[in-house]
């Protein structure tokens, strides 16, 4: 078996010295001197810096969920930037734990914004100086001001821009307006909705309230990550008119209690087949026919469909529940490694990864740069809601959609423009989690 | 082997059937794994089958979209082997120590029992918290190793108790009468006699460590062991490559067990030759 | 005395084990106890001395429900593993006559455990699911005409997976006890005119008690602390004490998790103390 480190090392044989170098963190400082002799390929990468020669010996360790911790990205980093990116995929609980409790075990954290709200104040990460990022201006305004277009409304919940900036280089207090110091560089985001099996439901679905429709008794499912599940539950309760909310993204104790009461009643009536926690579980539940309606992510729907099983990412009149993730720097990074991390983050925004993510059905945080790496047909299908002219391929070259297909939910603006709320951490988080546990135990 | 064979009673056939059903039950999920590992290229982790292919076996040795089988497998294997070696050595030493009473022996004994019954997630939480509070970095070869050892030691010790409780000391006395030192006695007499049980301890501890999830959860540090890696991989689309891994592991296990069994037989054969 | 080894060598021999237990068992458990009195907020644990974690835990009806549920799983799993484990051990101890065959059969039972548990759990879904192997077979044979829904994501599924995982740990100690039973006792019982069943009840079961006790200790404690089986097999719809702890860890509420852990530990210790009254493990091994 080949480990990805050795594989990617083999690729960079351009630079003989670096190919021989053991890419281990401990050696970085010493090796910097010797490697300086090597003929650099900085010009090729398009990111020439004075560090370009030594940077090849750097290994950055990134962790996150499997959603964006993709080996192909590490390979491309090796190719374009020359250094090694070591990816560790974890489940969503472990991601938050590791960010807080093992600050030295990572260099780059790939986390969601609502997790950032909990993690960043712990002081294990450092904000990024946006003036060092050439592609900063390419970042969607959604992450800077919270507005997709100047006249859109800001959705409820932990919207990324609310935890996107801190006051100063060593502050852990979130800034209310954009500053020079960014906590996470947005990388990936999406709008979630209900996924359905149209072949087993046979009628139009247009509201979140359908999740609790007795018609689907024993065939419904919901996401069991409290901070996200509660938002799905709130969308359902609001749509059915059972509970009214001041702000779904920051519920009062009373609103939480009412929401959970509705969910417990549904659970005891046997509405749910199972709860899912990982991407894979949602795919398996749907593909195996255990569940016909559940809250779902766009790429999970795509994954079911790629197995030849009908599955629809169903736009709903109440709008979407959105989530976003980004990458941030560990507190301990400094010197050469910090430079490398900045290069990596700037590169992340430069389009290749954006195109890769777009092709999976997520959205890139810098759409304009991603467009340069996508064909017109791909861009039209994924971003503009147009019918595909040819077959649409997944990043690894498998056919995902046949020619003529139109993406569920339409264009980027239609989807991200109808976000009702973001995944969030509420003021009453402790209470919410206790109530959620009650729901699970009921 | 057996010279006098009585006729099998009816209960034998009844019980043999029961045992066969039990084995079938144990292999039930393996059957699904086996069938689905031949899933077609576009097939998923569940039925229906989408064609038939060897695609996923080839895929097992390629880079996955997410995660790293090679690295985590190597780590789990190394960790399992270290745990195995340490458990065999330390349990054997402890087994020898417990043949005599010494001050604090019951403390150690009850610690071992405690170690057996404390839920795995508590060990994980405790070590994770401890390392966090004193700012040590968890690593698979330090904290996770320790966490696994608290799981394998009790088994090792209990097996050693079972062995030494039935151990006939007359062989050692004979050796001593012939002038052997105590270390020579252990090396030449005791060790060969308990060797089959030590192989049992070895296999048991390897199996426990290789598949341990809860105890590794908060103690593995920056790099994942195989069970953690597989769990992490389920945060993206997983494919029947997981089943291919299961099928290959089972096949490989049969080979390892054949080797282990072979070595037991050889040991016994040698012992038979000596006596 | 078998050896002329001094007490010193006993201490030398036991020291590695003692050291590992001290660092990786005793100190971590003490840490948990201490942290259970600490406070916490969204992302930090704050050294303190409060009883809030315990007062919430013990005052919440959820806790009692979860404990009841966990006891239910433990009791059911214990019952089934005992019945199956005893029968299997009896077969291996009294009907399989050569040691080699006993070893081979044990090995055959061990092999499934070398495929990662996570993979095996995932594979229950295509086996027990609505369109799974079992339902297809039952429907194909005309035994049922609707797929059986209770097979998966239910208490049945949790207990099934637990029995699947832990029966072997019941078999081994019972087998060990049975192997120590003097065969002449059984002969004697038979000569005295006892039926097979009477021999079983009067001789074999009482003499297998130590093994039964050890197996029970193991199975019960492991089920009490389990979280991954419950989560995956109930489809996240049931709770257990271990799962509660794991959830609390997941949302960074370490002090709350530590308090739950201490309560669980005390519960388990009480159960085990009760079981240990039945048998002196050290002598009976």
TrEMBL record, chain A:
Top-rank taxon, per record: Bacteria
InterPro entries: SBP, TAT_signal, TAT_signal_bac_arc
UniProt keywords, alphabetically: Signal
PROSITE patterns, sorted: TAT
Matches recorded under SUPFAM superfamilies: Periplasmic binding protein-like II (SSF53850)
UniProt xrefs under PANTHER family: SPERMIDINE/PUTRESCINE-BINDING PERIPLASMIC PROTEIN (PTHR30222), SPERMIDINE_PUTRESCINE-BINDING PERIPLASMIC PROTEIN (PTHR30222:SF17)
NCBIfam families, sorted: TAT_signal_seq (TIGR01409)
Name of the protein this chain belongs to: ABC transporter substrate-binding protein
UniProtKB/TrEMBL annotation, chain B:
Biological processes per GO annotation: transmembrane transport
Occurrences of domain ABC transmembrane type-1 (ranges): 73-260
Organism superkingdom: Bacteria
GO CC list: plasma membrane
InterPro entries xrefs: Bact_Polyamine_Transport (IPR051789), MetI-like (IPR000515), MetI-like_sf (IPR035906)
Compartment list: Cell membrane
Pfam family, one: BPD_transp_1
Main localization category: membrane
This protein's UniProt keywords: Cell membrane, Membrane, Transmembrane, Transmembrane helix, Transport
Protein name: ABC transporter permease
């Amino acid at each position: 078996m080949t480990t990805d480190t050795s594989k990617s090392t083999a690729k960079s044989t351009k630079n003989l010295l670096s190919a021989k170098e053991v890419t281990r963190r401990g050696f970085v400082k010493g090796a910097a001197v010797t490697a300086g002799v090597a003929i650099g390929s900085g010009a090729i990468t398009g990111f020439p810096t004075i560090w370009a020669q030594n940077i090849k010996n750097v290994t950055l360790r990134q962790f996150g969920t499997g959603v964006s911790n993709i080996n192909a990205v590490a390979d491309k980093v090796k190719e374009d930037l020359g250094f090694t990116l070591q990816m560790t995929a974890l489940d969503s609980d472990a991601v938050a734990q590791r960010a807080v409790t093992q600050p030295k075990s990572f260099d780059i954290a790939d986390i969601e914004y609502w997790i950032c709200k909990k993690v960043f104040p712990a002081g294990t990460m450092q904000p990024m100086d946006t003036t060092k990022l050439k592609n900063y201006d390419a970042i969607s305004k959604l992450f800077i001001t919270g507005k997709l277009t100047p006249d859109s409304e800001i959705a409820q919940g932990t919207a990324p821009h609310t935890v996107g900036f801190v006051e100063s280089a060593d502050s852990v207090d979130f800034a209310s307006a954009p500053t020079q110091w960014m906590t996470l560089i947005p990388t990936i985001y999406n709008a979630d909705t209900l996924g359905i099996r149209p072949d087993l439901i046979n009628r139009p679905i247009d509201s979140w309230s359908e999740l609790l429709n007795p018609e689907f008794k024993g065939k419904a499912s919901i996401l069991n990550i409290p901070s996200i599940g509660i938002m799905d539950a709130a969308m359902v309760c609001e749509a059915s008119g059972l509970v009214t909310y001041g702000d779904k993204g920051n519920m009062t104790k009373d609103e939480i209690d009412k929401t959970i009461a509705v969910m417990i009643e549904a659970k005891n009536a046997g509405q749910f087949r199972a709860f899912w926690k990982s991407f894979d579980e949602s795919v398996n539940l749907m593909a195996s026919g255990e569940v016909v309606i559940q809250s779902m992510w766009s790429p999970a729907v795509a994954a079911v469909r790629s197995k030849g099983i009908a599955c629809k990412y169903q736009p709903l009149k109440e709008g979407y529940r959105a989530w976003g993730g980004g990458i941030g720097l560990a507190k301990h990074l400094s010197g050469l490694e910090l430079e490398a991390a900045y290069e990596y983050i700037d590169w992340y925004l430069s389009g290749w990864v954006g195109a890769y993510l777009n092709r999976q059905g997520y959205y890139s945080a810098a759409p304009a740069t991603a467009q340069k790496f996508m064909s017109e047909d791909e861009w039209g299908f994924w971003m503009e809601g147009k019918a595909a002219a040819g077959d649409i391929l997944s990043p690894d070259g498998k056919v995902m959609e046949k020619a003529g297909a139109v993406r569920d939910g339409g264009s980027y603006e239609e989807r991200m423009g109808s976000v009702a709320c973001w995944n969030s951490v509420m003021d009453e988080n402790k209470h919410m989690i206790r109530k959620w546990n009650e729901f699970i135990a009921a | 082997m057996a010279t006098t064979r009585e006729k099998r009673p009816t209960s034998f056939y009844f019980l043999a059937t029961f045992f066969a059903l039990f084995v079938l039950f144990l292999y039930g999920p393996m059957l699904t794994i086996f069938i689905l590992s031949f899933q077609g290229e576009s097939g998923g982790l569940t039925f229906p089958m989408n064609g038939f292919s060897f695609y996923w076996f080839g895929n097992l040795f390629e880079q996955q979209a997410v995660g790293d089988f090679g690295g985590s497998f190597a780590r789990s294997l190394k960790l399992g082997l270290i745990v195995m070696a340490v458990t065999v050595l330390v349990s054997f030493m402890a087994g020898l120590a417990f043949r005599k009473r010494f001050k604090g022996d019951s403390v150690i004994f009850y610690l071992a029992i405690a170690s057996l019954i404390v839920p795995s997630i508590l060990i994980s939480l405790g070590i994770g918290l401890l390392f966090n509070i004193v700012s040590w970095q968890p690593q698979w070869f330090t904290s996770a190793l320790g966490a696994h050892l608290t799981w394998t030691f009790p088994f090792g010790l209990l097996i050693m108790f079972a062995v030494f409780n039935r151990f006939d000391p007359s062989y050692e006395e004979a050796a001593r009468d012939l002038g052997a030192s105590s270390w020579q006695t252990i090396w030449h007499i005791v060790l060969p006699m308990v060797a089959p049980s030590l192989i049992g301890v070895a296999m048991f501890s390897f199996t426990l460590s290789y598949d341990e999830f809860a105890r590794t959860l908060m103690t593995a540090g920056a790099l994942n062991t195989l069970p953690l890696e597989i769990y992490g991989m389920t945060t993206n689309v997983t494919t029947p490559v997981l089943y291919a891994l299961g099928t290959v592991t089972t096949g490989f296990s049969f080979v390892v067990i054949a080797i282990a069994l072979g070595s037991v037989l050889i040991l016994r054969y040698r012992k038979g030759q000596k006596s | 005395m078998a050896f002329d080894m001094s007490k010193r060598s006993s201490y030398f021999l036991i020291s590695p084990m003692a050291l590992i237990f001290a660092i990786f068992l005793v100190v971590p458990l003490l840490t948990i106890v201490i942290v259970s009195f600490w406070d916490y907020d969204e992302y930090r644990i704050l050294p303190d001395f409060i009883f809030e974690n315990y007062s919430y835990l013990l005052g919440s009806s959820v806790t009692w429900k979860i404990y009841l549920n966990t006891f239910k799983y433990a009791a059911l799993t214990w019952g089934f593993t005992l019945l199956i484990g005893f029968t299997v051990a009896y077969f291996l101890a009294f009907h399989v006559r050569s040691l080699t065959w006993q070893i081979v059969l044990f090995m055959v039972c061990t092999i499934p455990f070398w495929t990662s548990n996570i993979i095996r759990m995932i594979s229950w879904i295509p086996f027990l699911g609505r369109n799974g192997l079992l339902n297809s077979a039952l429907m194909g044979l005309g035994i049922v005409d609707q797929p059986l829904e209770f097979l998966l994501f239910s208490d049945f599924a949790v207990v099934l997976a637990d029995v699947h995982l832990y029966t072997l740990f019941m078999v081994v100690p019972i087998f060990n006890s049975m192997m120590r039973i003097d065969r002449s006792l059984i002969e004697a019982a038979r000569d005295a005119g006892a039926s097979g069943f009477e021999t079983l009840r009067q001789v074999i079961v009482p003499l297998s008690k130590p093994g039964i006790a050890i197996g029970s200790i193991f199975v019960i404690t492991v089920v009490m602390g389990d979280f991954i089986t419950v989560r995956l097999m109930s489809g996240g719809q049931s709770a257990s004490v271990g799962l509660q702890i794991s959830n609390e860890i997941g949302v960074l509420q370490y002090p709350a998790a530590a308090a739950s852990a201490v309560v669980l530990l005390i519960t388990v210790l009480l159960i085990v103390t009760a079981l240990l009254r039945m048998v002196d493990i050290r002598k009976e091994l």
